[in-house]
Structure formats: C-alpha cells, structure tokens
Amino acid sequence: MLRACREVLQPGGRMAGYTIHTPSGTGTDEGIRASDLGPSEVFSPLTPEEQMMRAGFEVLETRDVTPTFAATCEAILRARRDLEVELRREEGDEVYDEEMRKKELMLEGIAQGLLRRSLTVAANLADA
Questions:
Q1: Which end of the chain, N or C, is less surrounded by CB atoms within 10 Å?
Q2: Cα 19 from chain centre
Q3: Which of 101, 9, 84 is nearest to 52 (CA)?
Q4: b/e per residue 30-58 (b: at least 16 CB within 10 A)
Q5: Distance between CA 93 and CA 91 in Å, rounded?
Q6: Per-residue pLDDT in tens (0 to 9) along the chain, 128 residues
Q7: Distances from the Cα of 62 to the Cαs of 37, 49, 108, in angstroms?
Q8: Contact at 8 Å (CB) between 37 and 105?
Q9: For the chain, what is the radius of gyration of the CA atoms?
C-alpha cells in the first residue's frame, strides 16, 4: 500500500499517517499477543519508519502518540457505555459487545506495552 501511495504522490510530496504497531524488538510470542489485543496485522519485524523507507519515502518525523491513543480508546468506551441503550438498539447486541471488547483489549495491549501508535511524516523521494 505504501508503494501505491508513493506512486500517486508528486516527487518531493509529503504524506502523513497514523500507525498502530508493536514496539521495536517485539518477539514473536509478544507479537502474537499484540495481534490478539489490537489489529490482526499489527506485528511486523519492521518499524513503521523502516516500512516507509523500503517503500521509497524519506521519514521526516515520527511522533509517539500512544498516550493520546489510550485516552481516545477510554473516551470511546465511556461514550459507548453512556449511549449503551441507543447503540444496542441501532447496532444490535452482538456488534455492541464486540466493539466494546475490541476497545477493552486495545487498552489492555497499550497498558502492557504491546501496542503503540505513531504519527509518521514522510516525503516521496522519487525524482525529487
């Protein structure tokens, strides 16, 4: 996907994106656990910066936004609890329960240090 983004971005153009990922140096067992707690494809032997560089980008900045990520997950959980009756009516019990479970697991992964979120800004090096 990153290579496709680079192809449509003008030379020297910039791209920014948020990534949920495991910390650098995460072992296989921890990576499997992180995949259970967060997005299924969260574990990679490459950091988000390394993935960007392999796709032909120059990484300009990376910012750890994990504390904000955790606060957002907590706020979503609070809001969903406050709106439980309405959400169960609109989404159905199964979807409501699954969404709550996913956010709770994500918070667990953040607390255990297995999930991080970063903002990465990069430039397209192609013919720049």
A1: N
A2: 4
A3: 9
A4: bbebbbebbeeebbeeebbbebbbebbbe
A5: 7
A6: 888 878 888 888 899 999 999 998 888 899 889 999 998 888 888 888 998 898 888 999 999 999 999 999 999 999 999 999 999 999 999 999 999 999 999 999 999 999 999 999 999 986 65
A7: 23, 8, 24
A8: yes
A9: 17
In this structure, the number of other CB atoms found within 10 A of the CB of residue 109 comes to 24
* Domain architecture of the chain: domains with CATH: 2-124 (3.40.50.150)
Model pTM score: 0.84
